[in-house]
User: Fold this.
Amino acid sequence: MKFFWHYVKSAMVPFLYLIFMAFIAMGIVMINDNLLYLKIILSVLNISFYAYIVAMVFYKDGETALKTRLANDLERVQIVKTGEDRPLKLIE
Assistant:
């Protein structure tokens, strides 16, 4: 169950940004039709900004996961060498 909540928490940030992007897109759609080029430019910027934000969030999550994996590997080496029971970060 802890794994489930970890994944839900990880999915909330992109979902919230998706909601914000949708509100911005609704504002862009309400621009007058004779400014079609402005609508297109703002829509492309909106989607690219969302993609950038989500990519950076996933990149940082990946960096954190790599650091956790390396720390767990060092802990496993110590467990094998000493035989003592040391805690590992299994959820991350």
About this structure: The mean pLDDT is 89. The CA atoms of residues 72 and 88 lie 6 Å apart. The chain is about 80% helix and 0% strand. The radius of gyration is 21 Å.
